Amino acid sequence: MTNQVTPYGTLTYDQTGNSTFTGADGKTYTVPQYTQTTTLNPQQQATLNSTESAAGNIANTADSLSSSGLSSLSQPVDTSGAPALQTSLGSDYSTSPGSNYTSSLGSGYQTSYGGDVGQQYDEAKNAVLNQLTPTLDRQADQTKSSLIASGIRPGTAAYTAAQQGIDDSYTRAANQATMSAQDVENQLNTQAGQQAQFTDSALTNQMQSQNSAALAGQSFTNSADLQNAEFGNSANSQWLQNYYTQRDQPLNELGALLSGSQVSNATTGASSTPQTNVAGVDYSGLVEQNYQDQLSAANQTNSGLFSLGTGLMGVGGSYLGRK
């Protein structure tokens, strides 16, 4: 065995005794025993001391945290303080346009117009006849008197011709009266049609305005219900996120101390909130995940907590083992 001197320290062998054994030939043999001593230089020894001190501090902190900081994990998960999830949009939410929406134009709507204007027709016709007939009567009397005075008697060709002229005058008067009555009838029907059109247009506009207002009102109500549900469910999700973050923080810190990893933020694993139907939180899954995290952290204790010291010793030993 050869003592070694390296830039990191020395490696020496000292005989500290003997040991005996019986060989295959039955003889007893005595061999010396040696003790290997590794001595680090001051810099390496100081580094090792600091590393062991840091590992001790981490172990003490982890021990303190595991005994006091994780006390909350012994309590069951309690989310009773979370804002309630809203899975219903309320009784005023509706997929129909509401009771004020109508498809009826009302009893005043007219699909036909015009009425019996026979009386007005007769009155107009009689008015013309009453105006023309007295004049025609006087003219007829005068013509007949003139014919008699001239010696023209009824039955003669001249008298018959004169009578035909008188009859034609009455016929023209009757035709004039009929045309005037028809003008009055047409005027009355036109007025009735315009009035019906005005009324129908007004009823149609009224129905459209009423239905637009009903649709807009229900749409506003539904939108408000949706926003209220989303706000409430977002509050529930945020509350759960904060709750599990606070609950899991000591466990995350302990896991980081034991494994040497960085502290991570706790997550609930909750999905995003839908507008109407919101799924519940998987509480049993969360508890199981916390348990798995603790088990994983415990399994990493040896490799994490003492890796700093053993790693450095390994490096120093490798150098001391060189010639």
Give the key terms.
323 residues, mainly alpha, three-stranded antiparallel β-sheet, 6 helices, disordered C terminus
Describe this structure in words.
The protein has 323 residues and is mostly helical. The chain has helices at 42-69, 118-149, 157-259, 283-299, 301-305, 307-320, and strands at residues 4-6, 9-22, 28-40. It has a three-stranded antiparallel beta sheet. α1 (42-69) crosses α3 (157-259), α2 (118-149) packs antiparallel against α3 (157-259) and α3 packs parallel to α4 (283-299). The termini are close together.
Quick take:
Helix content is 62%, strand content 9%. It has helices spanning 42-69, 118-149, 157-259, 283-299, 301-305, 307-320; strands spanning 4-6, 9-22, 28-40.
What's the topology here?
Blueprint: E1 4-6, E2 9-22, E3 28-40, H1 42-69, H2 118-149, H3 157-259, H4 283-299, H5 301-305, H6 307-320
Antiparallel strand pairs: 1-2, 2-3
Helix pairs in contact: 1-3, 1-6, 2-3, 3-4
State Rg.
Answer: 59 Å
Quick one: how many beta strands?
3
Number of alpha- plus pi-helical segments: 6
**End-to-end distance, in Å?**
12 Å
Strand content is 5-15%
